[in-house]
Each structure stands twice: as C-alpha cells, then as structure tokens.
Design goal:
globular, alpha/beta, D-Maltodextrin-Binding Protein, domain 2, WH-like_DNA-bd_sf, 10 strands, 6-stranded mixed sheet, Arc Repressor Mutant, subunit A
C-alpha cells in the first residue's frame, strides 16, 4: 500500500501563506497568528521534509527549488479546497453570488452599504469573501472579484469598470501637527514621518512623483501590514497616511479625517471582474456599484 502520510497540515498552511505572500509577517496576519508561530511551522516542515524551503536574504525570503515545487502543489491543493468549500456554502443558499474583495474594502466600504444594497437589489443574494493578494484568473469558487487593477486583464474575464482609483494623504484634524501642516504646501510632508502599509508600498512614492517630488526624500514612519490597520491608525490620530478615496469618504464627511492636499488619479480602476459569460445579477450589481462610487467622486 502506498505511503499517503502528509506533513502536519498547520505547517503546510503556514508555508503556503508565506510562500504566496512572500513574507512571514503577511502570512501571520492572514492566518491570525504571530510571526514566530509561522516561522516555527515552516521550520517544522523543513525538518519533516529534510530540505530547505526558503533562503533567508536579510529581512526577506527566497524560495529554494524545492520550496517552489511545494508552493505550487500546496497552493493548488488549498485553492481547490477553498473553491469546493465556497461552492458547498453557495449550494446551501441557492442563487447566492460569491464576491471576493480585499478585506479593507469589505470592512470600510461594502459593509456600510449592505443595507442600501439589499433595499435596492432585494433579489440579489451575496456572500462576500475577503481576499488578499492577486486573484486567480480562473476565479475559483467566486462569481466575481471586486478589485483595483489595470489592463492587461485575463482573457477569460469580463471586466466592469466602476471608477478611477484616487489616493491622497489624510490626517486626523486632532493631530498636533494638523493646523501647521494644513496651511503648508504638500512639500511639507517630506519632513513628516508618514504612516504606510506593506500592502501598498508604491502609494507614497507614486503620490510624490505625481507632484514632482523626490520619492527618495519621503520619511516613512510606522508601517502596517494591511491597509485596514493603516486607516484605523490615521483615524486614531497617529499621523499622516495615504489612502484610497472611497475607503475614507465616510471619515472625511464625518470630520474624523481631512485631506488638505486632495487626491490623485493613479491610473488604476476599481472594477468588478467576472468570467466571460454574462450574468444578469452581476450586471445589475456592477451598475449599482458604479453608482455608489460616483457618489464619492
């Protein structure tokens, strides 16, 4: 009889997340465990297999040849499990559409609008699934993905463009430096320690280049693994953050945040992406979402 033994599944899960995200810290955040817990699970897996899966390079990770092979196999296996689970959950609620979207967008933009969505499209049943990182072109287990992106798109996708992506610096009006900064040109931000996120490392440099400023002069202060935590830190008055306009629109309207220097167009777009076959329910959702984004512009 063939040996069907497997390494510890917790160790495989930790490795797959670290390999996919390229970071132990990001894997820990996704799995809701500590950095040390993921590191221990990866070492356990390496000991069990008798091969190195990562080469540590400074603070980063590089997969070995063996690590790349296991990443591909584990990623495919976990992806198939996730797709099957989503299908089973959807099967228990006939007609439900499963929509994947970044967790920060789900928490700060979609959830506050669910009541309105249910009133406007009462026949539409949704299951919202948080998703971090790139979407698989096959959208396994999903009916659509709500995301920020730009062409080229997978050939198998039907892309509904909803709105341009706009980002800009935001700060709590109660922040000690707010009065001083709000009266100065945007160059003043080069002298401030700026809040930033590992999930969007290009945001501050992109903003600086747009305004003809040298990104090398930016002073990055406290960093956060996810955009959601960054925005919570900004609302808590910890400093100046950079944010997508839709995710802070409610905070701006309520006076919890201010955007003295406005927002810039990044060239990317908010989109609802589906498989190529038209779905009337998704088409109606796309029109509704586009209207919601238009209210913010």
């Amino acid at each position: 009889m063939a040996d069907r033994s497997l390494p510890p599944l917790n160790a495989l899960r930790a490795f797959e997340a670290a390999a996919r995200l390229g970071s132990v810290s990001r894997a820990a955040a996704e799995l809701h465990v500590t950095h040390g817990a993921v590191s221990r699970q990866v070492r356990l897996l390496e000991d069990d297999l008798g091969v190195a899966l990562f080469v540590r390079e400074g603070r980063g990770l590089r997969l070995t040849e063996a690590g790349g092979r296991l990443r591909d196999a584990a990623g495919a296996a976990f992806g198939q499990i996730q797709a099957t689970v989503r299908t089973l959950r959807r099967g228990s609620e006939p007609g439900t559409r499963v929509i994947g979207c970044p967790g920060s967008l789900l928490a700060r933009w979609m959830i506050p609008r669910l009541d309105r969505l249910q009133r406007d499209l009462p026949e539409l049943k949704l299951h919202l699934s948080p998703h971090e990182g790139e979407f698989d072109p096959g959208l396994p287990g999903l009916d659509a993905a709500l995301l920020v992106g730009a062409p080229p798109w997978p050939a198998s996708w039907r892309v509904h463009t909803l709105a341009p992506e706009r980002i800009g610096p935001v700060v709590d009006p109660r922040h000690p430096a707010f009065e001083r900064l709000s009266r100065q040109p945007m160059e003043a931000l080069l002298h401030e320690e700026l809040l930033h996120t590992a999930s969007r490392p290009q945001a501050w440099p992109q903003w600086a280049r747009h305004h003809g400023l040298d990104p090398g002069q930016l002073r990055l202060g406290t960093g956060f693994e996810h955009l959601y935590y960054l925005l919570e830190a900004a609302v808590a008055g910890l400093g100046v953050a950079i944010a997508p306009q839709p995710l802070v629109a409610a905070d701006l309207a309520a006076g919890r945040l201010a955007a003295p220097w406005g927002f810039i167009d990044t060239g990317a777009r908010w989109c609802l992406c589906t498989r190529a076959e038209p779905d009337p329910q998704i088409e109606r959702l796309a029109v509704w979402l586009g209207g919601q984004f238009a209210e913010i512009a």
